[in-house]
Amino acid sequence: MLHSSQGSKRCGYNGAILMKSSIALFLSILVLAGALAGTGAVCVGQTTAEPATAEPQSNSSAAPAPALGTPAQAAPATTPAQAPPATAGQAPAATDNPNNPENESITTIHKTVDEVRVVFTVTDKHGRYIKDLQKNDFKVLDDRKPAELRSFRSETDLPLQVGLLIDASNSVRDRFKFEQEAAIEFLNSVIRPHYDKAFVVGFDVTPEVTQDFTDNTEKLSIGIRQLRAGGGTAMYDALYFACRDKLMKQEQTGPVRNAIILLSDGEDNASHVTREEAIDMAQRADAIVYTISTNISGMKGQGDKVLMRIADATGGQSFFPFQLRDVSNAFLSIQEELRSQYALAYKPENFMADGRYRTIEIMAPGKGFKVRTRKGYFAPKQ
Q1: Which of 105, 130, 154, 201 is the most exposed place for a label (fewest CB within 10 A)?
Q2: Which regions of the chain are under pLDDT 50?
């Protein structure tokens, strides 16, 4: 019995030792695993906190930031303190993905457009419109130097955007009613529903839109009849406004032909812009201006010369109906011309974006044809 009791005590003692050893081994494994895990985090992500004043550490393996517009290459991850600062001409650090839409500005390309578009008409020696000419029939001189033609097309059926500007000053009061009716007749004839659009502006000291862009000729007629004569004349301001704030801001879904029909006696006594500023804005809007003089005295005055200058500079025509019934004939001539135009685009030789005025000359050699277009343009300024 004594021997058996001593053996039991020895076995219990050995079991206790074995259990303590197992527990110690298990704790050692846990400590080692935690240490290994902590070491791995530092190697991969360097996530340990550092003082804000720590000096940047050198990292010879870090790739430099790519130049503007070049693909970024992968580089080892670094801490914020190790990331090289972006410099001029470089993309942000390698953590920026060039395929990320937010970084599209990095590869933006700026290109100067050096192509000039021109609309023109061709008539024979009897004044009849010629509508069947081809690209090879024409030569273009830009600033007296041959230009390379890029495109050419006949625009006999292009959608129209027409601005009707009617002088509503006191100087035209005695014939205002007739001019309104002639304008209504013109728009009824030229505006095709779901295809062309027009707007109406009356002006004295200020321009007033009585009907915005529409293809509804009834609405246009109402807009014209709403005009009332009275006040001074700010013709240049009205032309400038119609081109800048109406034609140039109208949303486009395809090619269109811009035209302004200006009814006035040409006398301006209230504008804030000059005649040449108004002409320049019309050219920028690619608008052909047709002027119809309301002077029926039988003698061309200073205002008529102004109207001629505006039409000539934009490739349009001036009409001087000395009798009221001739106003309708002027509108008919404009309607025919709007359906008899060509358009081409060309690249000037040695073009420079210096803001300088450049002349345009289009020739149809050897056929005795007369080409009418705008006289020139101002090059854009960089």
Answers
A1: 105
A2: 1-11, 13, 17-18, 31-33, 35-112
Q: How far apart are CA 287 and CA 344, in angstroms?
A: 15
Q: How far is CA 230 from CA 41, 108, 173, 202, in A?
A: 84, 53, 7, 11
Q: According to the model, what pLDDT value does residue 73 have?
A: 35
pLDDT recorded at residue 111: 44
CB within 8 A of 201, min separation 6: which ones? 163, 164, 165, 166, 207, 208, 209, 210, 238, 241, 242, 246
Q: What is the reported pLDDT for 179?
A: 84
- Please report the pLDDT score of residue 256 as a whole number: 86
Residues, the chain: 382
Q: Does residue 80 contact residue 45 with C-beta atoms inside 8 Å?
A: no
At 202, which helix (H) or strand (E)? strand 197-203
Closest to 264 measured CA to CA, from 317, 200, 307, 215: 307
Q: Which residues contact 6 (CB under 8 A, 6 or more apart)?
A: none
Report CA-CA distances (Å) from 107 to 68, 89, 102, 170. Answer: 7, 11, 11, 58
pLDDT reported for residue 36 = 43
Separation CA 293–CA 207 (nearest Å): 18
How far apart, in whole angstroms, are the C-alpha atoms of residue 283 and residue 232?
26
- Check residue 125 and give its pLDDT: 87
C-alpha triplet 52, 57, 61: angle, nearest 5°: 140
Task: State the Cα–Cα distance between residues 238 and 217, nearest whole angstrom.
Answer: 22
* Amino acid symbol at 368: G
Which residues, 6+ apart, have CB-to-CB distance to 285 below 8 Å? Answer: 243, 244, 247, 248, 258
Write a three-state SS string for 1-67.
CHHHHHHHHHHHHHHHHHHHHHHHHHHHHHHHHHHHHHHHHHHHHCCCCCCCCCCCCCCCCCCCCCE
**CA-closest candidate to residue 190, choices 321, 331, 47:** 331
* CB neighbour burial string for 26-50, b if at least 16 within 10 angstroms, e if fewer: eeeeeeeeeeeeeeeeeeeebeeee
Longest CA span, the chain: 154
- SS3 of residue 87 by DSSP: coil
Query: How far apart are alpha carbons 57 and 352 in whole angstroms?
Result: 50
